[in-house]
Amino acid sequence: MSSKSSSLRGLAALYIACIAAVSAGVWHTGFRQGLDQIARRGEAGLSLAADRLTAQLQHHAEVAVLTADHPALAALHDGGERAPADALLLDVADKTSALTMHYVDASGRVLAASGPRTPEALGDSAYFRRAMQGACGERDLRRARLVLCRADL
User: Fold this and answer.
1) What is the model's pLDDT at position 40?
2) How far is CA 73 from CA 14, 41, 64, 99, in A?
3) Torsion of Cα atoms, 99 then 101 then 107 then 111, to 10°
4) CB of 103 closer than 8 Å to CB of 76
5) CA-based angle 120:121:124, to the nearest 5?
6) Are 73 and 85 contacting, i.e. CB atoms less than 8 angstroms apart?
7) Cβ-Cβ contacts under 8 Å for 90 (sequence gap 6 or more)
8) Taking Cα atoms as reference points, which of 109, 58, 52 lies closest to residue 82?
9) Are 100 and 113 in contact (CB under 8 A)?
């Protein structure tokens, strides 16, 4: 009887081990499929965010190029009045939903602005130097993003 009960115990242990192995396999397969689905969603979300960022930077660059050769801004280099250039930048900022716009010379001096707040020491900043090399330089501020684009390329 002892051999019969030990063989029943062995069969029960084998049965429980098989059930545990099948359960672990099912769990592992479900877990991997869930992770794959989450990874695909993450990749799609990241791709969409990158596309939106690229489109926004392209928009900023286009606005800079389209406004840079306006006569009110060009006159600033010959000693023209700042008020018409400020009004132009305010109008463009309103129409493009930009928080603020600045027209800056190559040394970093602000020649015109859409509002009273102007950044200081632009010429010394890394994002200004990047913008002067032809890329859109960007700096995160607390509530807004400062994007500088060179418009004379």
Assistant:
1) 94
2) 85, 46, 11, 19
3) -130
4) yes
5) 150
6) yes
7) 101, 114, 115
8) 109
9) yes
Supply angle C-alpha 53, 59, 62, rounded to 5.
Answer: 145
CA angle centred on 108, ends 104 and 109, rounded to 5°: 65
Question: Tokens at residue 152, please?
Answer: 């004379």
Closest CA to 63 of 100, 33, 27, 34: 100
Name 102's Cβ contacts closer than 8 Å, sequence gap at least 6. Answer: 89, 110, 112, 113, 114, 118, 119, 122
pTM of model > 0.70: no
Q: Amino acid letter at 53? A: L
Helix (H) or strand (E) holding 77: none
17-45 pLDDT per residue, tens: 999 999 999 999 999 999 999 999 999 99
CA-to-CA distance for 103 and 81, rounded, in angstroms?
Answer: 13
**CA 93, CA 31: separation in Å to the nearest integer?**
50
pLDDT in tens, 49-76: 888 888 887 887 788 778 878 899 888 8
**How is residue 3 written in tokens?**
């051999």
The secondary structure of residue 113, as a DSSP letter, is E
